[in-house]
Design goal:
Strand order of the largest sheet: 3-2-4-1-10-9-11
Structural class: alpha+beta
Largest sheet: 7 strands, antiparallel
Distance between the termini: 31 Å
Number of helices: 17
Oligomer: single chain
Helix content: 25-40%
Number of strands: 22
Length: 502
């Protein structure tokens, strides 16, 4: 899960890209990057850190031009300190291409071998995004035999990408001096939305991971990109669109609605906020059914993502709702922090209990999900230290029992608290007096009720069903070795990247 954005404007876009990345900061805290283009010159700045840390005044002044793309990195493999893996990635042939990618290719190793042996292309990092860029560049080289680039050449290259690449990918690429291209994998696992704004100088276009980046910048959302679709905006503002996959099935990642997306975003015509209200109601119904004689005095959310569900749950059950934890907003989202040691350290720095809301009470803590159990165990301990009589736990999502291979850092099955455990065993492991999970069928209904056209969802972390059909035990074992916490914590620092291509 990363954040991506691309803009073709009628005036310099550097500050719009910066503001757009800030609106999407929740999607990645590891690194940030922007590439802009003026005439035939490319300007790039990328480095580890938050948006406000990566871009200073001097960097912004260098990012010239009326079109550009941006990226926020969320690491799912290797070390979070590998600066060379910050995006955008660049290749000079053909035409000069910079690319940003949200997702994960499940056949990246095979593609890298093909690129080296057959396509004569070298991959310099362990990032599958660089692999995807080189696949696209190679196919575009084959499709466009002259310097006169046409939209059909781009669409032909995207069709070839769909044929060769497996997994999830929402992509925005900029061709130097020409325009911006965006496309989505044939399952539409990762989100991408198109927007526009009319100005006296003409129409400006934007593509981003979430609608909040559009509305926050004053753009009007047009529509989500279809699975397999490619959209090309020329530097003069001409919009071209084409379906590039022979077979498509919209199957968005349901975890976007549970945790990743901002509540004020709309993804595939579903309000994230409304879906979380539904999660609270469904969970309240299950509590009434399974805990009819409950003795819960107060419902307290674990901020921030679970607030919407927790408030609706409390209202539905007629139980008092209280804010029991104060969040330090200068500590990042612990789920997307690399390394178990860092997560454990950050939980207590991030949250502090208000003792008066716990003392002598039976408390129901509501979280969006329970992944590794690190946060839940420590928060339950903090609630008891604050004087809670009993501490119950509710998860707005089902048990996370399987690794995710489509761009979410759920690496090794044995790191997941729900792997090979019954609910009672998980309850004991995190130290709760009671634990209740959302049912998967209810979670799906929470989203589908808001858009009946969504027939399927990517739910592999809950049920182990991998929709791309190429994930087996061998792949999961390989991925576990590559993405396990031990591998992340064992890697060292690399040289800071600050690229300025003239």
């Amino acid at each position: 899960m990363c954040g991506i954005i691309g803009i073709v404007g009628c005036e310099p876009v550097n500050h719009k890209l910066y503001d757009g990345l800030t609106l999407l900061q929740h999607r990645g805290q590891d690194a940030a990057g922007i590439a802009t283009c003026e005439a035939r010159k490319l300007f790039v700045r990328k480095a580890p850190g938050l948006v406000k840390e990566v871009f200073r005044t001097a960097h912004m002044l260098r990012l010239r031009g009326n079109m550009g793309i941006g990226h926020l990195r969320y690491p799912t493999a290797g070390s979070s300190k590998v600066s060379a893996e910050a995006q955008p990635f660049y290749v000079n042939s053909p035409f000069g291409i910079v690319l940003v990618h949200n997702g994960n290719l499940t056949n990246a190793e095979q593609l890298q071998s093909e690129l080296y042996k057959s396509d004569r292309r070298h991959i310099n990092t362990s990032s599958d995004s660089e692999v995807l860029l080189n696949v696209f560049a190679h196919e575009l080289q084959r499709a466009a035999q002259s310097l006169k680039l046409q939209p059909e050449h781009l669409f032909k290259a995207v069709r070839a990408v769909h044929e060769r690449c497996n997994g999830s990918y929402a992509v925005i690429a900029m061709l130097v001096g020409r325009g911006v291209l965006a496309f989505r994998d044939p399952y539409g696992i990762r989100p991408a939305i198109l927007g526009k704004r009319e100005t006296p100088a003409g129409t400006e276009y934007i593509v981003a991971s979430e609608s909040v980046a559009l509305t926050g910048l004053g753009y009007e959302p047009v529509r989500d990109l279809e699975p397999g679709e490619a959209v090309y905006i020329s530097k003069t503002g001409e919009l071209h669109q084409q379906q590039c996959a022979p077979k498509i099935q919209l199957t968005p990642c349901i975890f976007e609605y549970v945790y990743f997306a901002r509540p004020d975003s709309v993804i595939d015509n579903v309000s994230v906020y409304s879906s979380r209200l539904n999660m609270g109601r469904k969970l309240a119904s299950k509590i009434r059914k399974e805990w009819p004689q409950h003795d819960i005095d107060v419902v307290i959310p674990i901020p921030d993502t679970s607030r919407t569900s927790a408030l609706e749950l409390a209202m539905d059950l007629g139980i008092k709702y209280r804010e029991g934890f104060v969040k330090n907003r200068y500590i990042g989202r612990t789920f997307i922090m690399p390394g178990q040691k860092m997560r454990r350290k950050s939980v207590r720095q991030k949250l502090n209990p208000i003792e008066s809301e716990f003392r002598g009470l039976n408390v129901l803590l509501v979280d969006d999900s329970i992944v590794r159990g690190t946060t839940s165990e420590q928060i339950i301990e903090m609630a008891r230290e604050a004087g809670a009589n009993k501490v119950y736990m509710a998860s707005a999502a089902p048990p996370v029992s399987y690794p995710n291979v489509y761009g979410i850092d759920m690496p090794a099955a044995n790191e997941l608290i729900a792997f090979d455990r019954e609910v009672s065993e998980i309850c004991e492991a995190i130290g709760a007096d009671g634990l209740i999970y959302q049912d998967l069928s209810d979670l799906v209904d929470c989203v589908r009720e808001l858009n009946p056209d969504l027939k399927e969802f990517e739910t592999s972390c809950f049920n182990g069903h991998y929709i791309t059909g190429d994930v087996d035990t061998n792949y999961l074992s390989w991925l576990e070795n590559k993405r396990a916490d031990a591998a992340q914590e064992g890697s060292g620092d690399e040289v800071l990247v600050d690229v300025g291509i003239q």
